[in-house]
Specification:
The structure holds 2 protein chains of 2 kinds.
Chain A lengths: L3 H9 L15 H5 L8 H19 L5 E6 L4 H16 L3 E6 L4 H4 L21 H4 L4 H15 L5 H10 L3 E5 H7 L11 E4 L1 H10 L2 E4 L1
Parallel strand pairs in A: 1-2, 1-5, 2-3, 3-4
Chain B lengths: L6 E7 L6 H11 L6 E6 L4 H11 L3 E8 L4 E7 L2
Parallel strand pairs in B: 1-2
Antiparallel strand pairs in B: 2-4, 3-4
Classes of the chains: A alpha/beta, B alpha+beta.
InterPro entries (chain A): DsrE2-like, DsrEFH-like
Protein name (chain A): Peroxiredoxin family protein
Keywords (chain B): Transferase
């Protein structure tokens, strides 16, 4: 495509046909170049390729980027963004995770240690919804899940978060939801970026090779 | 097998599950010099595919060998640059 374009436009350029007296203004300079010094089409095409390469080099900083929007704060839904973020960082990706609404819980130093698993609305739970809705059931299913996590040596949310921070993942806490939930900047883990909004997230997504909404 | 290369360092991630084997391998590789080989000992069966995929998609590392023995998966990764 990049090499086709200059050829196609160059084919239109020669004014050796049609009424000679009505030459468009933008073609006039071509006639000013003495015939012997005019660059050939091949030279022009090569120059265009050269400029396109230079542009690509100047606009691409080389590294791959991933942008994740984390919107959920249940124990099970806190894992995917953190696992993908830390893994992408291991691949050398520049990773940004923008946390909004319940996703903020993952970055909240206190609350991230007691994320809950919902027993209602999950057909994979061993109990029917009517039973799952009883008071205290969420605490039971959460305890069971926490035990499984410990038994399996699966990393905790806190471990994954600290590891990701160490690896250079940028965690952003949506300012609008911080205000909405009545949280304070100091409530979050050290290294978490606050004071950012949707425009920042959008900019990250536009520049990223991978964009995920979790 | 191990005669083909010298092991500069061994990383033990036995017991750890996804994504820790890959994440810790990356950190350990960062501490090596170019040309050195890291041995990774894991019990996570997923590490066979994961470390292979990670090495394939990551600049500056190369998977030299992988072996599967008594519940321990061994991975050999060379830092190339």
């Amino acid at each position: 495509m990049g090499t086709d374009t200059p050829d196609a436009s160059a084919a239109d350029a020669p004014a050796d046909e049609g009424p000679a007296e009505d030459v468009p203004a933008d073609e006039a300079p071509v006639e000013d170049v003495p015939a012997g010094e005019a660059p050939s089409r091949a030279e022009l095409a090569a120059r265009v390729d050269e400029l396109e390469d230079a542009l690509a080099e100047a606009t691409d900083d080389g590294g791959k980027k991933m942008s994740i929007i984390a919107t959920k704060g249940t124990l099970d839904m806190a894992y995917p963004p953190l696992i993908l973020a830390s893994t992408a960082a291991a691949f050398g990706y520049e990773v940004t995770v923008f946390h909004t609404f319940w996703g903020l819980e993952i970055l909240h130093e206190e609350r991230s240690k007691s994320l809950k698993l919902s027993s209602v609305g999950n057909p994979n739970m061993p109990v029917p919804n009517a039973v799952a809705a009883l008071p205290g059931m969420d605490r039971v299913t959460t305890k069971l899940m926490e035990k499984k996590i410990a038994d399996n040596d699966t990393a905790t949310i806190e471990e994954l978060l600290e590891t990701s921070l160490d690896m250079g993942v940028e965690f952003q806490a949506c300012q609008m939801t911080i205000d909405l939930m009545g949280y304070d900047e100091d409530d979050f883990y050290d290294g978490v970026t606050t004071g950012v909004g949707a425009a920042t997230a959008l900019q990250d997504m536009a520049e990223a090779d991978i964009q995920l909404l979790v | 097998m191990s005669a083909e290369f010298d092991i500069a360092e061994t990383l033990d991630v036995k017991g750890a599950s996804c994504p820790m084997p890959v994440v810790k391998t990356k950190s350990a590789i960062d501490g090596l010099a170019a040309g050195e080989v890291l041995e990774v000992l894991a019990t996570d069966p997923g590490s066979m595919s994961d470390i292979d995929g990670w090495a394939d998609g990551t600049a500056g590392v190369e998977l030299v060998d992988q072996t599967e023995g008594d519940d321990v998966y061994k991975h050999y990764v060379r830092k190339t640059e």
